[in-house]
Amino acid sequence: MTFLSNLTRSEGDPKVISTGPSSxxxxxxxxxxxxxxxxxxGAAELxxxxxxxxxxxxxxxxxxxxxxxxxxxxxxxxxxxxDSQAGLMSRVAGDGLxxxxxxxxxxxxxxxxxxxxxxxxxVLGITALDLVATKAATARHARTxxxxxxxxxxxxxxxxxxxxxxxxxxxxxxxxxxxxxxAPRPA
Length: 187
Prior knowledge:
With 187 residues, the chain is an all-alpha fold. Helix content is 61%, strand content 0%. The protein has helices at 2-7, 26-47, 49-56, 62-80, 84-104, 113-141, 163-166, 177-182. The two termini are 48 Å apart. The mean pLDDT is 82.
């Protein structure tokens, strides 16, 4: 990344010697991965609902599978957005719908019950990941992460070397008020 940063810099810009640690946490990385998984799954449900329905012994439910694909794409887009918490919560709600739908397909008359059982196991595992990611993202991005008043930034000044080093660094003040009067005025 340092190489690319230095390639694209303008003349006079400082060179990037090394980059700092990433601000993305493990929870953010998990949320991003789940968001991409949602987009891929939603695309598969939109493009091949008949094949999914046949695999699960749910022929005739193709429109429901398409609707679930649209829901999955929406959840994925929201999870990849700035408001990933809402996307993760919508994923958990969608997982609940998927579980109920798959439980309905576990009837004795379904010859593909083993496939439904495998799909149900996968959905339960993904639901566990969604719950972990939702809890972690909520804890990391909560406005009250540092207490009831929110995060405390009172120890930060915005000056890299501190406020004391910044004082007087920009302009040398005149020694006396008479120096101001004697200074030439810009035209």
